[in-house]
């Protein structure tokens, strides 16, 4: 509990929240980690929360959104992280309920790092007097910075593919295909989280909601700017991954064409001795039949025709 921007009490029972909120200068933060329905129902009754907000807070897989009720607002956000090994995206869902004097966070994933959020609050004690808006800003700032960091890490992974893009090794080609697919999948999941945050942060700054007061408005605009940059960056990376995948397919197609040209060239060269020896192997008399000079002529024709074809294909860059 904060009173006039100063932390005055921690770890008190839920049943004492309404008593503390009777003081207009008090602000309460309540965090619940994977609560049971009975525990959350107690909180709802204590604070007079809408049943739909309680239901959304308990069920996983909610879209990043902001729902407004008569006395409070419901907010759903996702913190993200990129795996260091395979670029897989990890998402941790957090439900937030805002009242004029209370911030309730429901961690649907036990590994949601709220300690970092608390550290951000402690670094800016001068803003703590703004109550719930101050606490919410620290939370959103942490979440959006995580989105921004994830986009940056994914961009670095895409840049690593440039060094492998024109590799001739079949193993590296398979690596490019696997990594490109993983990056595209991560970017699609990240886009589902980042894009709705534009509407969420923009709606929070609306004057009619009375969530953000004047002094904190520039801080929320800074968060909104980061959201816009992250969303635009995500869109551009999706196009870049698609370009990498298309380029990889083009490189493979060009390599296949080169192989086919070489195979065709050698097949044409091999066809010369096959045709000549096949002609001289027939059971009918032919020029030079039964004479040594016939063998010499046929061998010379084979050598000259094969060499002419070889140098012709070499000149056309088929070999």
TrEMBL record:
<protein>
    <submittedName>
        <fullName>Magnesium transporter</fullName>
    </submittedName>
</protein>
<dbReference type="InterPro" id="IPR045863">
    <property type="entry name" value="CorA_TM1_TM2"/>
</dbReference>
<keyword id="KW-0472">Membrane</keyword>
<feature type="transmembrane region" description="Helical">
    <location>
        <begin position="263"/>
        <end position="281"/>
    </location>
</feature>
<dbReference type="InterPro" id="IPR002523">
    <property type="entry name" value="MgTranspt_CorA/ZnTranspt_ZntB"/>
</dbReference>
<feature type="transmembrane region" description="Helical">
    <location>
        <begin position="293"/>
        <end position="313"/>
    </location>
</feature>
<keyword id="KW-0813">Transport</keyword>
<feature type="coiled-coil region">
    <location>
        <begin position="144"/>
        <end position="171"/>
    </location>
</feature>
<dbReference type="GO" id="GO:0015087">
    <property type="term" value="F:cobalt ion transmembrane transporter activity"/>
</dbReference>
<dbReference type="GO" id="GO:0000287">
    <property type="term" value="F:magnesium ion binding"/>
</dbReference>
<dbReference type="Pfam" id="PF01544">
    <property type="entry name" value="CorA"/>
</dbReference>
<dbReference type="GO" id="GO:0050897">
    <property type="term" value="F:cobalt ion binding"/>
</dbReference>
<keyword id="KW-1003">Cell membrane</keyword>
<dbReference type="GO" id="GO:0005886">
    <property type="term" value="C:plasma membrane"/>
</dbReference>
<comment type="similarity">
    <text>Belongs to the CorA metal ion transporter (MIT) (TC 1.A.35) family.</text>
</comment>
<dbReference type="GO" id="GO:0015095">
    <property type="term" value="F:magnesium ion transmembrane transporter activity"/>
</dbReference>
<keyword id="KW-0175">Coiled coil</keyword>
<keyword id="KW-0812">Transmembrane</keyword>
<dbReference type="InterPro" id="IPR045861">
    <property type="entry name" value="CorA_cytoplasmic_dom"/>
</dbReference>
<keyword id="KW-1133">Transmembrane helix</keyword>
